Amino acid sequence: MTTISLQGVGVSRGIAIGKVHIIERNQPETIEYLLEENMLQQEVARFKVAVSLARQQLRSVRDHIPPDTPGNITSFIDTHLLMLEDSALIQEPINIIMERKCNAEWALKVQRDALVSVFDEMDDAYLRTRKDDVDHVVNRIQRILLDQGLKPHEIPDTRLDGYIILADDLSPADTVMMQHKKIAAFIIEHGGPTSHTAILARSLGIPSIVGLRRALRFIHEEDLLIVDANKGVVLVNPTESMLAFYRQRQLDHIRYQAALISLREAPAISRDGIEINLQANIELEKDFETVDKVGARGVGLYRTEHLYMNRETAPSEEEHYQDYSRVMKALGDIPLTLRTMDLGADKTSGTNYEHIPFAANPALGLRAIRLCLKEPALFEPQLRAILRASAKGPLRMMIPMLSNIQEVKEIFFILDGIKRELDEKGIPYDPDLKVGGMIEVPAAAICADKFAQVLDFLSIGTNDLIQYAMAIDRVNDEVNYLYDPLNPSVLRLIHMTIRAGEEYGTPVAMCGEIAGDPKFTRLLLGLGLREFSVHPAILLEIKQIVIESNITKLAPEALKILNARDSAHANELLENLNSL
Could you confirm whether 180 is annotated as catalytic? Predict the structure, then answer.
């Protein structure tokens, strides 16, 4: 049998070997039939029972999520549960049943088609892809109505332990269940490195490849696969020699991870004596233990959006304060960098703000600091809580999505007013609270020297910086091939920011995805980056690279990459740099 090699994008590192199980994503086939008047109430009841069972299934998935699972994963499941409470999906099909005297399956399909057509007409590519969430929820209800039962990957047993999952796409519930069922890896035809599926895969630590176009044409149920997520390669029906090679690589990887633990207490100092500050990105309390295990020198990014998610009212000042106090107590003396609320674009909450208009392009609209400054009633409770918490230990505040100096002036004006209020009430706070900003808008990177003069520190958010620099929607399959950290324009924006920090003595960190990609570590060191904030799971690997590097020798090679003619040339030079 001939071995086939397929290439995609590795989004969660690791190697897996196993048989494949294919998840079909076709919509359940439905037909319309008319009902007598005296049968309509019974049909409505049948529909309500199906919705109730769908809720039970999703709650069961949520209840089986391991306690150490990051909060962004549970938020995906919660979003689908909220959709099962939305009248657009729950009440409208009932209205259609009564008006058209049709069966529940057809009524749900009619409403699904109506909702999807609205999404399809939206200009924003991200919003268009949200129709997938509608399909995930509708398909679950349809399968119940059609008495199709749960699919094999949804049944809480061990029949798929060690299997590799192949699908055209995966719902959040599917992805979470894979970890619960000890799935070895997953590969999907669609998606990019910053898609929801990729984010979930990295959080769960499952070897994963996305963007594997037409894989379903070449891979069949029970085929034996090798998934090399490090290279983004899938081998279909590998030879014995291939299997032996990759089994050895699996063992080597296990030994390598075990050896990294010994670096926990070692300082992150390069061969030529340059010390690098390695910090962790965290979101929830459950991440704190991992921060300590890897010996992070601090938390360079604590996301606060989880406080706003899946609720009808904004969190109070006291909720903010209690959350930050718990974090600081758990971290001890480790410095904490707390990012103020970054809602908008692909991060929405259940909270309604009457003055926020619908945005055709939310990634370019009212989000992050723009939303905060427009809605002071939303922003000020968080600022008061941050100031109060600053009295408890080493705490810094970081502002997302700055685009001009005027925004910084407005923030300082609000902070000064809150400080006066706290002084009048005798409430303690750190009067020297450090305030920094995220450089993730090209305008901010170009004027990084201006921001470096008025802020205490800067942190480069590469996820959005690349998206905005390349004018792409990073979750759009059609253009995410342009999401390229090695594009010369992106590298120049990064270097420009680092140089501005050096000129004005302002620390510059990087907390975006490429900071946590070992492929780019030496390049970033050579460009002058001295602070990294990464997922705790990758921190020790980054430290290993730092310890083995001579940064002085890396600098001229990094400048060659900076001046590369294009991304392909830059990639060639990067391979040379990483071989030094």
Answer: no
